[in-house]
Amino acid sequence: MLDIALSITVLAAIALLGGAWLAWKRGQRKQAGLMLVLVAVALVNVAIWTLPDEGGTAPLDRIEQGAGR
After folding, report:
1. How far apart are the first and last CA of the chain?
2. CA–CA separation, 8 vs 25, rounded Å?
3. Which of 11, 30, 46, 63 has the CA that lies 20 to 30 A from 21?
4. Count of helices and strands (H, E) across the chain
5. pLDDT of 41-63, one tens digit each?
């Protein structure tokens, strides 16, 4: 279930990038900047959940292993 949420988050980030580009083109600089900040926050959140630690296990993998008990 979490993998679906992370996929939707990445798709939303892509859509926000497009929206930020359109807002910038229309002269709405503040809204475009805020959209880019939101994209960065979303992608960092996805990275936190999917990148492995020094042991080689990602938090997402630990959750999936715990659910299989």
Report:
1. 16
2. 26
3. 46
4. 3, 0
5. 999 999 999 888 888 888 888 88
